[in-house]
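Annex B. Sample input.
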Amino acid sequence: MSYHQLVIVESPAKAKTINKYLGSDYTVLASFGHVRDLPAKDGSVRPEEAFAMSWELGERAARPMGEITKALKECGTLYLASDPDREGEAIAWHVQEVLREKHLLKGKEVHRITFNEITKSAVKQAIENPRQLDQPLIDAYMARRALDYLVGFSLSPVLWRKLPGARSAGRVQSVALRLICERETEIEKFKPQEYWSIEAVFISKNGAPMPARLWHYAGKKVEKFTFTNQTDALAALAILEGQRYQIGAIEKKQTKRNPYPPFTTSTLQQEASRKLGLGATRTMRLAQGLYEGVEVGGETIGLITYMRTDGVTLSNEAVFAARGVIAKEYGDAYVASSPRMYKSVVKNAQEAHEAIRPTDLTRLPAQLAKYLEPDALQLYTLIWQRTIACQMESAVLDQVSVDIEGNQPGHSFRASGSTIVFDGYLKVYQEGREDNASEDDKHTRLPPVQSGEALQKQSITPAQHFTEPPPRFSEASLIKKLEELGIGRPSTYTSIIQVLQDRDYVKLDKKRFVPEDRGRLVTSFLTSFFKDYVEYDFTAALEEKLDSVSDGKLDWKKLLQEFWLPFSAAIAGTKDLKITNVIDAIDGELGNHFFPPAEDGSDPRLCKACGQGRLGLKLGKFGAFIGCSTYPTCKFTRPLLANGETQSQAEGPKLLGLDPKTNMPVTLRSGPYGLYVQLDNLPEAGGTEAAPAPAGTDKKKKGKKAEKPAKPPAPKRASLPRGMDKETVDLAKALQLLALPRDVGADPDSGAMIQAGIGRFGPYLKLGSLYKSIPKDEDVLTIGLNRAVVLMAEALEKKKAEGGRELGMHPADGKAITIQKGRFGAYVKHGKNMATLPTGTEMESFSLEAAVALLAKKFAPGDKPVGKKKAPAKSTPATVTPIKAKRPAGKKVAGKKK
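Annex B, continued. Sample output.
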């Protein structure tokens, strides 16, 4: 059957959903994201050639582009339907360019279509209203990719040469890392200040308690640091205890609290972190699934609108749909008196799409409970609640402040309270807070009192407090800070955070970012020698210029030229930079971090080994370390003590306890590839020691090889998954890691066991011969069967989309037989044995039994894989082969060029 119209999207899930909406005249294929990228080598962006860029087809793109090419030959119209943002426009452009270079677009109609939601009506409306590719948006993508490439491939080599052990540097990631490191420095330099508060509880005439805090003392308003020590607080207490109290002024006022606007990408990530405990990567993965489509009642439906947006606007249809749901579910009193219209503050109108909302607000969360996994359901519920709440009436609160005056003038307490008169939008939604509830959210109700009413004093209590350092950034607060500074855009926040963790520059500890020492060294280096390029204002201004490019107001090559000239000069300026200059700069900035003041007042930099040298930062082949200034006389060194490690932890293994089954010690260790736990196979811990060889057996006997003593078995080890805090690893968790892989549960379809384990590429799930990586924000030790089944289904779907599937297990050895597409047609594979399907055979209907018979016909049991046979050695007359003289080291052969 020939296809007349071809639609290209970026993901198979999206293709599957859209394919169901369009008739038989369309075929929908996935490009699997970007099909081309800049090669990771020098010269991919060439400033000297007006910033010419070289693109190459990605490894994963060959198969999908092959399918697209084949389908295009039989169609007359091509629709490029990737996502409605800069990255989506770039994907569409890359696909078009690849096809143009193959001369496949001659005589074809090429259209660009976008839709903010994947619903039948939205897709059909997009088909009816196509447009051309947005060149300014493509130019902005080109500028961003060129900038990131030029920074990465110019700055990273400088880091590697001048700061051994550093990984790489990025244009935006380095600025985010600076935020995290500077916050850590603030925390380290913070000195807590003591202060005291005085709280009281009074009893009204009707017997109700009234909590209050000291408001005025000796005629002055009480501030935070009015009482800075216990002596002052107790002196005030003595004066306050001896007084009688009565009600003074009573102030009442009514306030309104308005609902928040609907979600943008950043506010969704922040709220999902605060309320649901989801990381940004996990949030966006779940949102992507809700956007691309979920099977509901036998129909695949996109449940939310596009989830990468910085706009807060809602379509008129969505506004009035929300108002209808509110009236039906909560009553007319909860519908806002007039539609609430929210305006986006984004400067670039090209990116200001509609806010994130459900595609159909009448689809209540409770109705989707049986179709969605728990996390996806929670996220959908959050989006539904926020969208509904934004069109609800304001909450109305009565706030009351009561002054409680002493009989001595100048001394008074104040009691405050609030009551909800009308809950309004709070009936549906209340924004989460990282710092617990605010005073407004406590809604303390005060008893009815009258001015002049005498009160009974129940208690007056002083309380000691200390100021606290600023909190470390969470994912939510870091995204909020980046957004406030104008750094990054909706599609970049997740990757910024992920790259910092992948490079081991930061780690998440109790959902807060803690910079690793490697990250602090990189930040110190960049702020010392490339300060302009990690300045917040500079990076934000560059983002604004990129927005101007996408808005068609600035030429992208002019932007690159303005950036590249001073940046390349700064890179060239490091040519003569000496390692000693780097060490001095970093040591001066991070000295207090690596050598905190000693409790006994001794010099923390005095070398304990020789008692004379000064400890300082050194740079070696494998990175930074601490060494003595009198080297080589004193050769004392120690690694950097990162994140609160003790000296003993840094220098050797940490004993976690004894394995109850073997009585062997279980230790936590650090190796070249990271942290791991080990079950030691030691003789004193119940292991076996190789017996000594019998006397006289050390000499070799003629014709027999001397028997080597048996090697003791290697100790059992297990790596810590990325993101696992070593401080949380106890004996129980270590034994769980050592017991991997573990059985998660039986797959409901096949009955086979799903296993979870850790391999060379990280935590994984395994079902038969099918593997699936466990997402980074999920735990290999606790992942459950329901989630495992979903992930394995995704892996199977991807495998099918790539043209292969598992038929079953071979009855002879229990190994999997798969069927796949190859260059020369479909074939079955068992181990390394492969057999091509007969001509005309359909892959979809080929059975396990047929595959076993086909393999048996071609291979006898135990046969090795068929390959090229080695030609037998030719019999030649015995000749003397001249021995080629070896060239003396360092000498050249006369008459030959080197």
